[in-house]
Amino acid sequence: MELLAQFYQLHTTTALGLVALFSLMVGSFLNVVVHRLPIMLDREWRSQCLEFLDHPEPDTNRAVPDKYNLVFPRSSCPQCGHQIDAWQNIPVLSYLLQKGKCRHCDKPISPRYPVTEIMTMILSVIVIGQLGPNWHSVSFLFLTWSLIALSLIDFDHKLLPDDITLPVMWAGLALALTGIGPVDVKSSLAGAIIGYGSLWLIFQLFRLATGKEGMGYGDFKLFALLGAWLGWQQLPLIIILSSFVGAAVGIGNILIRNHHRSTPIPFGPFLCAAGFIAMLWGDTLIDQYLQLMRIRF
User: Fold this and answer.
1) Shared-domain flag, residues 52 and 174
2) How far apart are CA 34 and CA 278, in angstroms?
3) What is the pTM of this model?
């Protein structure tokens, strides 16, 4: 890591360029995760339900091969199913060269794919540019990529998979335990407990008061994940930021897009965005707020 730090100091632009290229490839993989993981989970849950009910499993989706995971089969056009060659799978560049269309069926490809790759690149460069090359920034890159995947899956399916939230939460606790993480063990453990317990309590109180469920259990686990990585001290800032943004988006949908007020809005993306802000600037924002309060009173 010392050699990387020296290289970064001498060739900062080149180092950030390499981070950008690598994170574009990570963004391409995140597209695969966001698309395939919900399908894999749906298959698994259906199989478990049918097994529990002692029913034979029907072949309900012939479009999806029997062996289907994050690696197999090769990527294909979502419209015609034509397999994508390696040169057609270069992040962003292939999309531009093909003018956003499949070369086989000439149907448009969603711009979501290059947008995800570019977003992953930008956020990754911000992390390294803000923190420099060290173990904290490397771990925060992993956290950033996980938050991107969770945000997009929750936006699409209103689902925060345990397959991501739980391993990443345990990774945060493990880093704190080994001393590599950004916070100490007590802050990390308290963050996980308080993160899960606070939203669980709010959920129960809201259900008692209204008879409705205001959020899902995935939100509890995501908040616990953020607490495990960033410590309990950042949780108030995260919940305040995510609530304000969520409320603004909800009001905007009602006023502009005529959404009904009872239409559910996934809360995960707002938690992830607030967690990213707290990860890089949380201490600064908290210090500025406390300083402002001292001046005021």
Assistant:
1) no
2) 24
3) 0.92
